[in-house]
Design brief:
2 domains; five-stranded mixed sheet; 483 residues
């Protein structure tokens, strides 16, 4: 590793450390659920083999989650550093000048950085892809196929990467690759069968997202192209286009054909799946879905950047450009992503649990608010003292604290349909508290601190950058006692 690569890696580690140790909460969507499933996998193993949980993620983060969420953040952050380092090693092996720039061009991608210290599946899936490509270049077919096949148990749609490698190896008459190709799906099938005793549960889970009601409108064909600078970064996107256009002129097909196929294939696949009128899954259009191909995009972007530096030629000019590009990558990247501060719903949940432990220790809590399960350190799918909000549980437990949250009223993601009137109509139930609150978490994003002092066009750009990287909380919560 050359000196600049080492310094870039240290810089990325320092930036990650700042964000990790200023984050006492979760990534804004799904992260709390995944952490809970990972931590309580042995308690409720059937939750870990569901399509929502993804068994690859559960097993990867199971041990780190035993050390609390900070353990998950640190472990995930270290894995992300390894992804950036392997990106550098790939370009070094291909003898691309300025290969060390792969580290910041991967590490400072806005969406991937925001996901890099979470229990989400996108960054590990990206890691498997970049590791598989590294072993492909090292002529290790078994490792390449196994790693790419394992994408199936993290982000199933990225299994197409394994198809790319399989076709290459079949063309080379390495037919054993067909066996390795099945590792990911076969692993999920077997462990699902063992855990549940049902050999059909694997096939049921595969179609779950397509069966659920659509919670978002379909997208236009250009949606992810418009979102590319905020997903991958302005510098990264600009130099990916540069590198892509230069491939035919420099005859670098061998070096970059696969990264280009993976990058464009990932974007095109998600675009097709989410198109307005064709949306094939319950949730579409989120930028985190295409962040998975960020590392392969960065390989091509680093090539484009290297050619730009060769064009300028002069050392001092290149140094100025390096500082400028690094600054822009940081501001548009990590600096435009939020610290994962503890959300108000999380704090309220902790207060409810403290109230229960102090005043009503022998009462169960019946709710669909996962943060309550996290505060109780119990499985959100149902445990000793935390019970899911179902009509059966409302009737079953004579002593209970019932927590209702408006956004979950009749949600397709809850177990059964329980509305507020189902609770209030019960005998021996009284309301003891309610919370109505709207919280703007844009202030968790460092760049947003400058928002009030900027011109309107810069405000619009910041709004573009931080949208889908954070959220507003709209809390409508009621607490009841049943006794």
């Amino acid at each position: 590793m050359n000196k600049k690569a080492f310094l870039f890696l240290i810089l990325l580690a320092v930036v990650q450390a700042v964000w990790i140790f200023n984050s006492d909460g979760f990534y804004y969507i799904d992260d709390s659920f995944h952490y809970n499933v990972n931590r309580h996998f042995l308690t409720v193993p059937e939750s870990g083999v569901s399509s929502w949980a993804r068994i690859g993620r559960v097993l990867l983060f199971f041990i780190p989650s035993m050390f609390g969420y900070k353990g998950v953040q640190i472990f995930s952050g270290l894995l992300f550093l390894l992804v950036a380092f392997v990106g550098y090693k790939i370009l070094e092996k291909q003898e691309i000048k300025y290969a060390e720039w792969a580290i910041p061009l991967i590490g400072f991608q806005p969406v991937l950085f925001n996901l890099s210290y979470t229990a989400m599946a996108e960054m590990p899936a990206a890691a498997l892809i970049i590791f598989a490509y590294y072993f492909y270049l090292k002529d290790k077919p078994a490792a390449t196929m196994i790693l790419s096949s394992l994408t199936f148990i993290f982000r199933t749609e990225m299994y197409f990467v394994s198809v790319i490698f399989l076709l290459i190896y079949l063309y080379r008459k390495k037919f054993i690759s067909l066996v390795y190709f099945t590792v990911g799906p076969l692993f999920w099938f077997i462990i699902s069968w063992i855990v549940t005793g049902d050999m059909n549960i694997f096939f049921y889970n595969l179609g779950m997202h397509s069966r659920l009601p659509r919670i978002a409108e379909g997208i236009k064909w250009y949606h992810y192209l418009y979102m590319a600078p905020k997903t991958y970064g302005v510098v990264q996107t600009l130099f990916f286009i540069t590198g892509f256009l230069l491939i035919p002129f420099t005859k670098k097909y061998k070096e970059f054909a696969i990264p280009v196929l993976i990058t464009l294939g990932g974007i095109a696949g998600h675009t097709l799946a989410a198109l307005d009128g064709l949306s094939s899954t319950c949730s579409v259009g989120q930028v985190r879905y295409i962040s998975i191909v960020g590392p392969t995009l960065a390989l091509v972007a680093t090539f484009g950047l290297s050619k730009f530096y060769e064009l300028t030629g002069k050392y001092k000019i290149n140094v100025l450009f390096m500082i400028f590009f690094l600054f822009v990558s940081f501001v548009v990247g990590p600096y435009s992503t939020p610290f994962h501060t503890k959300y108000d719903i999380h704090k309220i949940s902790e207060d409810i649990v403290n109230f229960r432990n102090t005043k009503y220790p022998d009462y169960v809590v019946i709710s669909e608010v996962q943060f309550i399960a996290i505060a109780m350190d119990e499985a959100a799918s149902g445990d000793k003292n935390y019970k899911r909000l179902t009509k059966e549980n409302l009737q079953k437990y004579p002593k209970a604290i019932i927590v209702w949250e408006g956004s979950l009223d009749g949600s397709p993601f809850t177990e059964g349909v329980v509305n507020l009137k189902d609770i209030t109509s019960l005998p021996n139930v009284r309301q003891i508290d309610s919370v109505y609150r709207v919280v703007n978490h844009n202030f968790d994003v460092p760049v947003y601190k400058h928002y009030a002092y900027l011109a309107d066009y810069w405000k619009k750009f910041i709004d573009y950058l931080i949208a889908e990287q954070n959220c507003w909380e709209n809390i409508n919560l009621k607490v009841f006692i049943k006794d």
